[in-house]
Amino acid sequence: MPLLEINNLQLDFRAGATSLRAVDGLSLSLEAGETVCLVGESGCGKSVTALSIARLVPTPPAHYAGGEILLNGDDVLKMTPAELRRIRGGVVGYVFQEPGASLNPVLHVGQQIKEALKLHRPGQATDAEIIRLLKLVKIPAPESRIKDYPFQMSGGMQQRGMLAMALASEPKLLVADEPTTALDVTIQAQILDLLRDLKQRLGMAILLITHNLGIVGDMADRVAVMYAGQIVELAPAAELLCRPLHPYTKALMASVPKLSGGAQRLTVIPGHVPRLGDFPPGCRFAPRCPLAKPECSNAIPELVEVEPQRWVRCPFWK
Questions:
Q1: CA-CA distance, 179 to 187, in Å (whole number)?
Q2: CA distances from 4 to 52, 76, 155, 262 (A)
Q3: How far from the centroid of its chain's Cα atoms is residue 14's Cα?
Q4: E runs forming strands in 137-193
């Protein structure tokens, strides 16, 4: 049984009589100890999908219109508030982008870690355990840092503090939503190295949300490419990076700067991700797709397994 199994998830945002679908028929699974990267441009629905795993999207305005989210076989969409409190942190831990905006500025970082311990491991809510967690995420001199406020830490140290909070409840799944945003390149590499190390030591599964394909090859076992609320390609990371099949995945790969070949203009994807409620008929990528044909506007293509373990939402992928 997969640790996480999302089946045909449909999530709407309602404004009065208007209902806008942000996640449309998404299916994705994650095995224990596996790392899956969910990639795509801003506005594709990655973060909403990640937050839905523990039902953190406020309802209203959100409405779960269909599907199921199974954690160890239990459907999150049918859980009571008490059951949700148990899995939030206890089963699924989150690390959000821009840690400076996620940490409470008026509480010591140690206090914020202790809150998670009190809720999920009350017997371990001690300074010694907080220091152990800070050491685990490689914060130097944790005995003194335990009393630091977030503003006294650099962006990289703040992100490590967020990781310590997420790990305090010993989750089985860590959802890292753009964990390297707003960090310089050197610190980004350190955070990614830390995630790899923690996964190996603790045996966690990781769902990594990113728009940066440059980090996928180092981190992912599998990659799910998302566009306009739908998964358009799903494949083992090595195969997808070597041979992308969907036109959108190919366009994303082409837009990554190359270190060889000298200076050249970057390839861009024309247009932009359609807004909720403005999805085109048929294939949602068709207006931006260089391979689009008239029939692409007739119906939404299905996500089909075109090769072993390779799923593509495009009949013209060859």
A1: 11
A2: 12, 10, 30, 44
A3: 23
A4: 173-177
**Residue in 311, 279, 312 with CA at minimum distance from that of residue 297:** 279
Q: CA-CA distance, 125 to 130, in Å (whole number)?
A: 8
What are the tens digits of pLDDT across the range 199-215? 888 888 999 998 777 77
* pLDDT tens by residue, 113-162: 998 888 888 888 888 989 998 888 888 888 888 888 899 888 788 888 88
Across 171-254, the runs of DSSP E, i.e. the strands, are 173-177, 205-210, 222-227, 230-236
Q: How many CB atoms lie within 10 A of CB 109?
A: 28
Task: Compute the average pLDDT of residues 61-70.
Answer: 91
For residue 188, give Cα distances in angstroms to 37, 152, 175, 215.
16, 19, 17, 9
Query: Residue 180 gets which letter from DSSP?
Result: T
Higher-confidence residue: 5 or 197? 5
- Exposure string of 263-299, with b = 16+ CB inside 10 Å and e = fewer, is eeeeeebeeebbebeebeebbbbbebbeebeeebeee
Inter-residue contact 147 to 187 (CB < 8 Å): no
Q: How far is CA 140 from CA 145, 150, 298, in A?
A: 8, 15, 58
* DSSP strands (E only) in the chain: 4-15, 18-30, 35-39, 62-71, 74-75, 92-95, 173-177, 205-210, 222-227, 230-236, 304-307, 310-312
